[in-house]
Amino acid sequence: MMIIPHIPLRLFHGSALPDLTSLKIAFAQNDTPLGPGVYLTEDPLVARCYSKDLGKIYEVEVRGNRSYVINLDEPFKKQTFEARSSIIKLLHLAKCEMPSTDKLDARKIIQMTQSKFTKEERNLRLAQLGIWMIFGTLDCYESNGRGDRGIQYVILEDTSIMSVKPYIKQVEPSEV
After folding, report:
1. Is residue 129 part of a domain?
2. Which residue, 63, 47, 56, is CA-closest to 9?
3. Percent of the chain scored above 90 by pLDDT?
4. Is residue 1 part of a domain?
5. Which of 28, 62, 160, 165 would bridge 36 by S-S if both were Cys, CB 3.0 to 4.6 A apart?
6. Is residue 172 part of a domain?
7. pTM of structure
8. Alpha carbon 74 to chain centroid distance?
9. Cα separation of 151 and 135, whole Å?
10. Distance of alpha carbon 19 from alpha carbon 55, whole angstroms
């Protein structure tokens, strides 16, 4: 059964830069766990780990067709038709055989291309195939030691970032 991915309405990005007005894939680091892209999280505390002393946490609004999102933690067979098609095309471009089992999660299938593509090349090709976001829980091999926990959302397409604004924590009545 196919699952249309849920994407939270509020996502956060932490940066050491205090005056961001936009986020661009071109400025993404290549050595990131899921490859270059704009990394977002549901948790402002995780974003704070990346903001350092002088930086800020930003609230980011994203928009795109959820059928073109890959949930790395879900089995291939539970991806949308569009996501499955993009994964198959990526394997074809890498000259990799599609595994015979559909019990593998999307992450393991996509990782089959790592002998042919760098993470940067892979993410670029996914974006060219229409995938604008990949997301999943970072495992112990992907964690960068900065307090990652939970799901990391990686934007692969600049046009999917609708707005970037400094995050202002909402004070709950019980905190006053």
Report:
1. yes
2. 63
3. 59
4. no
5. 28
6. no
7. 0.88
8. 14
9. 7
10. 8
